[in-house]
Amino acid sequence: MNEIIENINERILAGINCLKGSIPVRAFGLAKPVNLIDDSIDGSLPAIIDNEGECYYVFTDDEYPLGFYHRLISRTYGKQKGYGDNDLDAQTDELIIVVWGLSKQLEMQAEEVEREIIIPAIPAKAVPVQSNFDAKTVCQTEWRGYNYINKPEEFIFSTRYRISTVFNRKCREIKC
Amino acid sequence: MSLIYKTCTSGGQIPTYNCNACGETEGGRVRGAAYIHKSLKSALTSANLLSIAWWEQQIEAGLIFVIPSTRGTFDGGTANTVTGFGDETNKKTGKTYVAVINDANHAGNQAFYQALENNFADYILAFRTEKELRVANEVLTDFNMQDAVTENTEDPVLWAATATWVQKIPNTLVEVLTLTDDIKELFSKCIDTEASADA
After folding, report:
1. Taking CB atoms and an 8 Å limit, are A84 and B130 in contact across chains?
2. How far apart are CA A91 and CA B24, in angstroms?
3. Is A85 an 8 Å CB contact of chain B?
4. pLDDT digits over A20-54, tens only?
5. Gap between the Cα atoms of B64 and B116, Å rounded
6. Residue among A16, A64, A54 at smallest CA distance from A32
7. Is the CB of residue B172 less than 8 Å away from at least one CB of chain A?
């Protein structure tokens, strides 16, 4: 999954570079919701969390015309016919890539970015599922408990995609 | 002198039935197969078939080819009958068996399977299920190899062998032996005869 996320990011950056030249892009990998509790709000917002627990903001930044991050929504498991004594495990990861941008600086609208840059960046190993162009619902999902209101020239959308892998559980056993 | 009325089984006796009170069953799938040269037919005793040393010796001699970790089916046999005699409507002469063995080791095995297809009549099939080893008592009467390709890019291309043989009365059932751990391992892992020859 991590390799595919890196691959998607590289392809997005290459796509941007091809269409718009060298512009600053805020690209992130797998973000997680960070819970915040203050006096009045019990909510969460997306952030990259490193192993030390440091959190890095991943959402909109006026200094960048485009940015994006990924989130793992769910992981489901199933069985697949194997060989010999074993059956294989099938793992399906549902992810979204949340994209935000400033249409004036980028000179592109959300639908164009999705169609020309994001969807082609998803490699064959992953399957695009659905894109949500309703900025309000995307923000409500990403900024839980907060009322994030995007500026008119700021677009926000998300694209859900799926990665399916088959693995042999024995190969993942830890051998100390 | 009194007359003896002969029956098929010795003394007309039926062996004791074995009932498993714990309800343990045998798991399906043809999980591994072996092609045994017909020259070993008389040596296919339970003592030999349950001896890892015997198997290893025959494999190194090139008389047995083991295909480990397969996926496949066994039809259990279809009776072959002819018109009966006396009061019998039909007379069973034997059973025809068909096993399908799917081998995921596609690369580099065309020559192997071509040779097997050309010389199937020289080989006897053995295969394992969960805990049991089944060994035919006659050579193959038909053997067809296929490596079908589907449209789905994720589907593996397999070597699918359809092996057919006939067992005649009175031994119409395929012999079933309980696997030992080492024989089970033989049918589960790739083995290298060159490495063992070097050792």
Report:
1. no
2. 31
3. yes
4. 888 889 999 999 888 877 667 678 888 888 888 88
5. 12
6. A54
7. no
Q: For chain B, first and last CA: distance in Å?
A: 66
Interface of B with A in 97-126 (CB under 8 A): 102, 104
**CB < 8 Å to A79, chain B:** none
State pTM to two decimals. Answer: 0.73
Residues A97-120 have pLDDT tens digits of 999 999 888 899 999 999 999 999
Range of the domain at B98: 27-80+94-198
Q: What is the mean pLDDT of chain B?
A: 91
Nearest CA in chain B to A81: B71
Residue A152 token pair: 């008119």
Which residue from B104, B85, B96, B181 is spatially nearest to B136, judged by alpha carbons?
A: B96
- B154 pLDDT tier (thresholds 50, 70, 90): confident
- Chain B: closest CA distance from residue A85 (Å): 6
Domains: count for chain B: 1
Provide DSSP, chain A. -HHHHHHHHHHHHHHHHHHH-S--EEEEEEEEEEEEE-SS-EEEEEEEE-TT--EEE-S--TT-SEEEEEEEEEEEEEEE--STT--EEEEEEEEEEEEEEEHHHHT--HHHHIIIIIHHHS-TTEEEEEEE--HHHHHHHHSBTS-----TTEEEEEEEEEEEEEE-GGGG----
Whether B32 maps to a domain, the answer reads yes
Residue B66 domain-assigned? yes
Note whether residue B40 is domain-resident. yes
pLDDT at B5: 76
Q: Is the ipTM of this complex over 0.85?
A: no
Domains and CATH numbers, chain A: 2-172 (3.30.2000.10)
Asked whether residue B198 carries a pLDDT value surpassing 60, the answer given is: no
Q: Is residue B162 part of a domain?
A: yes
Q: State the average pLDDT for chain A.
A: 88
Average pLDDT (B114-126) is 97
